[in-house]
What we know:
Blueprint: H1 8-15, E1 18-20, E2 30-35, H2 46-59, E3 64-71, E4 78-85, H3 88-97, E5 102-107, E6 110-115, E7 120-126
Antiparallel strand pairs: 1-3, 2-4, 2-5, 3-4, 5-6, 6-7
Amino acid sequence: MHLNTITEVTLDAYLNAYFYLPNLPIRYQSACVITAWNPNGVAVGARKNRQRSRLLVNTHKHRLMSRGYGGNKEMTYREFSVLLKGDRSQALHLMQCYHQKGVYYINKGKIELLLSDGRSFELTGTAKSRVFKRKRLPRLNKAQYFSGFDRPRNA
């Protein structure tokens, strides 16, 4: 499978993503949500994912708006993610730098999913409506137990 290939299962998971961003700023013009986990959709393990997340945070401290997670609506599958200040071209650049298949670009409250294969989709709802509402995350995180985002049991 080509590195830019995005399966229907992965696309469905991307289109139905929610975010846990506890320090979400009230006002911002444009930003992106990105993870450094599992480059090119290939599971690398918890230790490597933590290293990649630290690199992402430390490299972009000056643009960091919030740390949190991107995952399914219930947050039972979630990956560490960050909200960074930036425009659409910066979001695309970050996606390439961290070898991700997708990144979320937020502009004036609307969310656009940008994919590594060149496609893009506007997500339904606003950024605010896609934020996980509970104060605490569930104990279970399937991302820590299953390998690969392309597997149906993970999405």
